[in-house]
Amino acid sequence: MTTPPDATEVLSLTPVIPVVTIDDAAHAVPLARVLLSSGVNTIEITLRTPAALDAIRAVATEAPEMVVGAGTVLTEADLNAAIEAGAKYALSPGGTPRLMKAARKAAIPFVPGVATSSEIMRGLDLGYTCFKFFPAEQLGGVASIKSIGAPLAAARFCPTGSITATKAPDYLALSNVLCVGGSWIAPSDKIRAGDWAFIEAAAKQAVALKPVA
Fold first, then answer.
1. DSSP class of 4
2. Beta-bridge partners for 114
3. Torsion sign (Cα): 55, 60, 65, 66
4. Of 44, 167, 190, 200, which residue is the catalytic one?
5. Per-residue pLDDT tens for 181-198?
6. What is the pLDDT of residues 107-159, one digit of tens each?
7. Are 22 and 31 in contact, with CB atoms under 8 Å apart?
8. Which of 27, 59, 87, 159 has a CA between 20 and 30 Å from the CA of residue 51?
9. Which residues make beta-bridge pairs with 157?
10. Tens of pLDDT along 22-45?
11. Domains in the chain: ranges and CATH
């Protein structure tokens, strides 16, 4: 089996990856441009709405400087659809053996979600080193990732789930954390309302957060 594309590079693009749910694909490009102007050059668009794939396609086509990822990838079909739409990487809240094996053959990096040491070990066995620790706060947050990091030193994480701008720096201070996923930057209601000023301010604040080198 081949080695899957490494996700380290995309997870190192920005301290906080905006995790967004888009109801109307027409909002995708204006959102991407606001984030880019604020210094954020990647975004995770979750596959939670019928508009998600069209939103990914629009960003990939009309704002190609934005590195667009697909979130909530649950099946091989989701992964293939995301790649076809133009996603540059994909993330999942979990990682079934079938999905992780299929993603090894994909042309884009895939970040499986984990919640336990056993799940991380299974991912490491398949050649993955980057994982989405989800739901981060509900799993014990910073203390859990710090504890896991000692015996599983090869693993690197993008914690996601109920993390706020206030909590993010504590995660980013950990050497095994590459970035965090943040839904606070561009909440769905702000996207629907076109409140780009709110999103711009939140994005600039997030860019100022620096992970440990």
1. P
2. 133
3. positive
4. 44
5. 999 999 999 999 999 999
6. 999 999 999 999 999 999 999 999 999 999 999 999 999 999 889 999 999 99
7. yes
8. 159
9. 131, 177
10. 999 999 999 999 999 999 999 999
11. 8-207 (3.20.20.70)
Task: Classify residue 168 by burial, with Cβ atoms within 10 Å: 0-12, 13-18, 19+.
Answer: buried
Query: Is 62 among the catalytic positions?
Result: no
How many C-beta atoms surround the C-beta of residue 3 within 10 A? 9
> Is 137 considered catalytic here?
no
pTM for the full predicted model: 0.95
Catalytic entry in 88, 132, 167, 190: 132
Q: How far apart are CA 62 and CA 66, in angstroms?
A: 9
Tokens 């739409």 sit at which residue?
85
The β-bridge relationship of strands 113-114 and 110-111 is: unpaired
Q: How far apart are CA 65 and CA 78, in angstroms?
A: 23
- DSSP letter, residue 177: B
| Centroid of chain to Cα 107 | 17
Place of tokens 């600039």: 204
79, amino acid identity: L
Environment class of residue 45 by beta-carbon count within 10 Å: exposed (0-12), middle (13-18) or buried (19+)?
buried
Tokens of 10: 């995309």
To 10 degrees, what angle do helices 97-104 and 117-125 make? 30
The DSSP bridge pattern shows strands 156-157 and 89-91 to be: unpaired
Residue 61, token pair as written in the block: 């086509």
Q: Give the C-alpha separation, 66 to 9, whole Å.
A: 14
